[in-house]
Amino acid sequence: MYLRHGTFSYLPEFTDDEIAAQVRYALLNGWPVSIEYTDDPHPRNAYWEMWGLPLFDLDEPDGVLAEINACRATFPRHYVRVLAYDASYGRQTTALSFLVQRPPEEPGFALTRTEGPDRRQTYGLRPYATDRPQGLRYGG
């Protein structure tokens, strides 16, 4: 299964140069950038673990790329994403979000169906990744 997350989810994987170009665009717009990672990419899991602190007051993407590479090296079997925040609305608003790393194997999700009163069907998603303990979900 190929998980679709973020702004560029239907494009091929970005190279480091393409990631740098997107980070440069965010920095030119004055958006602080942060890096997050997870081993549970459920669509409703909006709160991933933050890698370090948000990166403010940068002019070039080199510092962000160094942090992305450090996160990738520390968590080679996790999803890693870059987020850029736009504070112009007076609140923290995500302006840009995209994946920069996927685990080598993506186990996918199971669709669960429950029949209720009057034969009413309800559906839910359960990630196969959560069958294993946190930190070991992707063969770590």
TrEMBL record:
One annotated GO molecular function: ribulose-bisphosphate carboxylase activity
Superkingdom of this protein's organism: Bacteria
Signal peptide: none
Region (Disordered): 107-140
Gene3D superfamilies: Ribulose bisphosphate carboxylase, small subunit (3.30.190.10)
Keyword line: Calvin cycle, Carbon dioxide fixation
Protein task: RuBisCO catalyzes two reactions: the carboxylation of D-ribulose 1,5-bisphosphate, the primary event in carbon dioxide fixation, as well as the oxidative fragmentation of the pentose substrate. Both reactions occur simultaneously and in competition at the same active site. Although the small subunit is not catalytic it is essential for maximal activity.
Quaternary organization: Heterohexadecamer of 8 large and 8 small subunits.
Family, per entry: Belongs to the RuBisCO small chain family.
Other information: The basic functional RuBisCO is composed of a large chain homodimer in a 'head-to-tail' conformation. In form I RuBisCO this homodimer is arranged in a barrel-like tetramer with the small subunits forming a tetrameric 'cap' on each end of the 'barrel'.
Stated name of the protein: Ribulose bisphosphate carboxylase small subunit
Upper classification of the organism: Bacteria, Bacillati, Actinomycetota, Actinomycetes, Mycobacteriales
Gene that produces this protein: cbbS
